[in-house]
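Quick one, T. Sequence first:
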Amino acid sequence: MAQTKKKRRRKHRGTQGGRIDTRPARGRARSRSEAKAQARTRTKKKGGPAVPKPPSWSSAIKKGALAAVIFLVVLSLVGQDPVQSLLAAVALGLAFYVPMAYLLDRYMYQRYLRKEAKKRQEREAQRHGIGEAES
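Structure tokens:
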């Protein structure tokens, strides 16, 4: 009996997003929670919410120096005396902006820590079943 030498074709399964999976499914099907967890890990690799760094005086000084340079450029473009614009830039950029930058960084970092603590507390409450309506 003659045998055909035709290569076996596999089915291409399309996803709802339009992507075509060429590999067949292996093992058991994923549950919904497993699929969500895998999708979360994929999105975390790309980026995610920015985690603020703890406040430091060195970062505040860098921001103040940058503000002073920008302020100096703006004042020189307006036509102020170079010596006066330099003094104003140093006074405003360093004396005013450095403490303000530190306080703003500290506020943002503490706000981030409060949000994280609240999320952690909610996860703990869900894990232990606290807060659910008892019947």
